[in-house]
Each structure stands twice: as C-alpha cells, then as structure tokens.
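From the pipeline queue, job 12 of 40. The input is one protein chain; the requested action is below.

Action: predict structure.
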Amino acid sequence: MKRILKAIAIALTLTILLTQGALAATSQDVTITATPSFISIANAPGTWTLNGITGDSKIAINTVYYANPLGDTTTPSATVADGECRFTITNTSSVAIDLTVNIGDFSGGDTMTNGNTGDNGATTFGAYSWFSGMTYSGKVIAKSTGSAIMKDALAPVTDIKWGAEIETRTNAWTSATQMTSTMTIIATED
C-alpha cells in the first residue's frame, strides 16, 4: 500500500509540475497603435484678378492692388478684419500647421518679376500677405520662393481668412498683353 501511495504521490507531483510548466507564459503580445499626422489644406477662391474686384481689370504702373473685397485699392484696417480678406484657407490637417505664401514672377506681356523685398522697381513688383486678426503693419513679404511664415500654428480643422497685395512695377507698360502669376500657399507642420 505504501508503494501505491508513493506512486500516486509521484504521479501527482509530476502532474502538478507539468501543469505548472504548461501555464507559464513564454510570450506576451503588445498592441501597437499609430495614428499618422497628415497635412492638407483647401483654399478658396482659386483666382485673383488684379483690379478685378471692383475695378476694370486693367492695372496701372506703381499702384498697390489688394485682395480686399471692399476694393482693389482699399488698404486693410490697422487690425485686419475678415471682410477685408478675399481668401479662406481651411486646415483639413490632423495637426497644427504654419502657412507661407510665395508669389512667382508674372509671365506673358511686360516683364514683372518679384523683387523679393516687398518694394517695386523698374521691372519688379513688391508683394505681401496678411491674415484676419493680425496687425496690418506686420504683413509678411511674399517672395517668389522662401517667404517667411505668414500664419503659424493654425489649429486642425480651422479656417482663416487672408489676403495679399501686389505693387506693380514703376516703368510704363509697353503692351496690353495679359500677364499671369501663381501664388503658392505652403503648409508645413507647426
């Protein structure tokens, strides 16, 4: 009987040891989640005709034209108001963004290149950008490339109204051929 009890005890001990070994964790899973940040903007409207908001769409030399719905030659207020801004940018990104505005050289017709200083010259134009709520005197020079940030830290899923201005060259025009330029809005993660 002692032998039988001893055999049962050994069998139970082996069973317990084997069972405990089977229950010990030899691996664990960790769930990884990743939400990408993405940058996306929408801007409207997509066109601007100098002196075309309230003017006759013909431009003069040495004249500043504003993307101001109140008038092409109407300077925005000391603190720019929504109603003085032609464009609306919507940050459809998942993150806060910084916005930069570049204005390229005009092509077709008379030569008018971006002087990149905000000032106009014989064949160069000066350009600036601004947004609603900012102090107009703090407007940002809009260069052909590499402009400074116009608006920083625009929150995700937020709109902002903005405008631009161009001061035409100082030399007389030699033709009435239409000229075009591209204004590029660049969004980068804040």
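Job complete. The mean pLDDT is 91.
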